[in-house]
Amino acid sequence: MLSLLSYETVGENVSPEHPQVVPITIFVAVLCLCLVIGHLLEENRWVNESITAIFIGGLTGILILVLRKGQSSHLLRFSEELFFIYLLPPIIFNAGFQVKKKQFFQNFITIMLFGIVGVFISTVIISLGSWWLFPKLGFLGLAPRDYLAIGTIFSSTDTVCTLQVLHQDETPLLYSIVFGEGVVNDATSVVLFNAVQKMDVSKINSQTILSVIGDFLYLFSTSTALGIGVGLLTSLVLKTLYFGKHSSIRELAMMVLMAYLSYMLAELLELSGILTVFFCGIIMSHYSWHNVTESSRITARHVFAMLSFVAETFIFLYVGMDAFDIEKWKMTKLSLGTSLGIYSSIVFLILVGRAVFVFPLSAFSNFMNRRKTSPLTFKQQTVIWWAGLMRGAVSIALAFKQFTYSGVTLDPINATMITNTIIVVLFTTLVFGFLTKPLVNYLITHRMRNQNNRGGGSGGEQPRSPKDDVVLPLLSFDESASANMQIARESFSLLMDRPVYTIHHYWRRFDNAYMRPIFGGPRHSRSEC
Amino acid sequence: MLSLLSYETVGENVSPEHPQVVPITIFVAVLCLCLVIGHLLEENRWVNESITAIFIGGLTGILILVLRKGQSSHLLRFSEELFFIYLLPPIIFNAGFQVKKKQFFQNFITIMLFGIVGVFISTVIISLGSWWLFPKLGFLGLAPRDYLAIGTIFSSTDTVCTLQVLHQDETPLLYSIVFGEGVVNDATSVVLFNAVQKMDVSKINSQTILSVIGDFLYLFSTSTALGIGVGLLTSLVLKTLYFGKHSSIRELAMMVLMAYLSYMLAELLELSGILTVFFCGIIMSHYSWHNVTESSRITARHVFAMLSFVAETFIFLYVGMDAFDIEKWKMTKLSLGTSLGIYSSIVFLILVGRAVFVFPLSAFSNFMNRRKTSPLTFKQQTVIWWAGLMRGAVSIALAFKQFTYSGVTLDPINATMITNTIIVVLFTTLVFGFLTKPLVNYLITHRMRNQNNRGGGSGGEQPRSPKDDVVLPLLSFDESASANMQIARESFSLLMDRPVYTIHHYWRRFDNAYMRPIFGGPRHSRSEC
């Protein structure tokens, strides 16, 4: 895996046949250390997993720097390929696999508002802001395309820190919005970044902007369709062939390989692998997962979580280690004052760019859902705003893609942008991340936590237990025609009232009647006709 | 992972940033196909997993060759690094993790005879035989070191085919010997290959041979110690910290990472990674596995099996695909007759080289164990002989290491040796593999299967159920001194009688009294004092 990076061996006594042995050994050993320390600090009030990994990575970087007498701290150069081909797919797939689908789809509109419209707004503000501020600070030489790239780079959020603090059961609404936004944001910023790179920046007019939006919608829908297609195919194969008859290993391998295949196919077709693998994960947890043996179910859940966890830790570790690569620092020619000015202006733009869309869009979302009992309170909006302030691995990967050629840059302006990105990621993750636990604990008091179950389906006009949701659609096939009529009439008034909820309700009926019998899934005994 | 190989893209329309996307997509898709077809052919009398994978790989190779209009069939060049750093460790670790330790250690001496002494004998015969035969067939130009390398290359067996046919419960003795020999053989041939490469071949005398044996013993003992050390450390960490308290993901990640770390550490210290990771697997299944939560136990078992399964399938697939790489074939300058002569002489040497040690060493093993009731019958010896006739991925990896420079060779003699190896691997796996199922079914009749439980601990002078084994050592701490004396006297006469068995017995006592309380493992309630 690490071979994607151009490696540099630490010592001279290493056999030339296996130059990767040293960096892999160090990375694996440090990953183990991260696991142990992360576990020991689990109950700490301030620290979280990402901060621990960045710190340990930084310490390792310093250690290597000292051992090499100041030459360079990096064992491996950052490579977007390592990131986009090996590390990101398991993280996003796991997100789709573990997401609480019901809550995700019930808050679908709000999530899409934040995750798509929000990124567009934030990109515009950060692009314009940096275009206006950077020359004033004495940092010249960036092309218009670079400013647009900066906008998308610093619009991709990293919600891991906040998700570690929020609890899915205590604040389901908030959790599902922050989680959902995080995934959609990742996909949007990568897709937008690619769209910006293809765009002809010399003549920006309403038509180019429309074509970017058109491209985006095309990518979004095809990628989603591909993910759903691969997921359904996997479910069908697992259900029809029933691998478990001979060996539960095959069904497990099938799930892992097909999930990865969906991502690679999307990349091959130049779609968004992130969206594809996310929806593939949702479909797999909804159908495929039910077609395998009990032990494979347990294993699948844990394997995906473990792969995602290791990939995430690795990324933060890597970012920490890369921060002490002094070659990049030597190359930037700006004074400390200018550099600090640039860092703070980027952080300022991030803060503003996010505030500008979170609060208005929350108000809009509340307006749309005005007939529901609990709108997004100001405190909750603040948490959502805060959750998206951290910048992470996606930012770094995109920055390397824009400003380096396979991890190397010799241009001082590009080197400056790389160091800027690293500093902003470190600052937001460490400082904002450090404040997240206390802030969330302060804003989300116990009283509020109990108010927030709107996302769980209760709290609307028709409070309904999860059990009802399963039984109701089935009833309609067994009961008399008049009962069906009654349900239809109710449904219609519901549709007027709460469109998303009603779509969800019809989906459940369709799912139980047609999808689950074909693709697998838990069914009520009465529905097995 | 695949990036280790020098890749060549199929089409021209692939974005230059991600040249690996196409080969990875094809490999993953074909792997999925292998899974499905392997499942469908599971109950077929003739075909097994390896043969299926080689066939599908071959078909894919032909397809690519046709699509590219005969240019070349390989998507990826073979790389020993891919093999030794990523594919081999999970296979060997899983072997250690799943091995039935009791049977393995009860047949330890027999396994070591076949796995170590056997490889030495086979290497000598194949080296001398090829040194004598090749020039007669008109194939000149190999150096003495090459002949020694050929000896080790064709002494590494691939017992996967046979193990798929034998059943651990029906023929425990045979299974544990074939399985154990397979693992020890892998390690021995790799270590011997490396020793031969370092050796000064210009002056072979008794001293060089002694130093090779000395090197070998040193590597064997240090590698084993390292594997045991890492395994025990992992057990201790898992037991002390109890990761499961917060997240079962961490304990799982810890096991996977530490297992891999043991292999990489061994490679870094220039020891035998295979032996290290094998013993690490044994220790982990004996101690670490008991220190994790129930779900992690299920997951660990399945994850290791799945990784091993995928790696194995990948290797056979790859070998099949590589067979149609016509560049290599164009480069050899021998006539068809000469080539056929070389192939058949290698296969002949393999058959002879194995027969020469299997039957005498079996007789020796029977003589050593003469007071046991069931010796290795001639039919069983034949199965052991047959099981080691197939050549597999280790042979290919070693051949590439000896005769190419990072997968490429421009020398016709070296190219010939590569094609020879591929042909021999294909021939032995397909033809011998094809005959394995019927042969084993013919030789091992049901009557014999019942005779064979010697390996399970019963059938000796002191038939003893597994339960006894656990209880007996514990008794000695609770009962009176006279009972202890009695046990000691019995043990002494046992030691005279059946040394391995008695060592095993004492080990169990020690294990229960000291090791398990420290490192974890299932204990009788009375021992928890």
What is the rounded Rg of chain A?
A: 24 Å
H-E string of chain A: HHHHHHHHHHHHHHHHHHHHH
Number of helices of chain A: 21
Q: Main interface pair? A: A-B, 59 and 59 residues
Oligomer: homodimer
Secondary structure category of chain A: mainly alpha
Q: Low-confidence segments of chain A, ≥5 residues, pLDDT <50?
A: 1-16, 447-480, 525-529
GO molecular function, one term (chains A, B): potassium:proton antiporter activity
Protein name (chains A, B): Sodium/hydrogen exchanger
InterPro entries (chains A, B): Cation/H_exchanger_CPA1 (IPR018422), Cation/H_exchanger_TM (IPR006153), Na+/solute_symporter_sf (IPR038770), NaH_exchanger (IPR004709)
Catalytic activity (chains A, B): Na(+)(in) + H(+)(out) = Na(+)(out) + H(+)(in); K(+)(in) + H(+)(out) = K(+)(out) + H(+)(in)
Tell me about this structure.
Chains A, B: The chain crosses the membrane at residues 20-41, 53-70, 82-99, 111-134, 173-196, 216-237, 272-290, 302-321, 341-362, 383-400, 420-444. Chains A, B: It is found in: Membrane. Two copies of one chain form a homodimer. Chain A has helices at residues 21-40, 49-67, 80-98, 101-106, 108-136, 144-153, 160-165, 172-198, 206-241, 248-268, 273-286, 294-322, 326-331, 336-368, 378-387, 393-403, 412-443, 446-451, 466-478, 481-497, 499-519. The two termini of chain A are 49 Å apart. Residues 1-16, 447-480 and 525-529 of chain A have low confidence and may be disordered. Helix content of chain A is 73%, strand content 0%. Chain A is built from 21 helices and no strands. By secondary structure, chain A is an all-alpha fold. In chain A, helix 5 runs antiparallel to helix 14. Chains A and B meet through helix 1, helix 3, helix 10 and helix 12 of A and helix 1, helix 3, helix 10 and helix 12 of B.
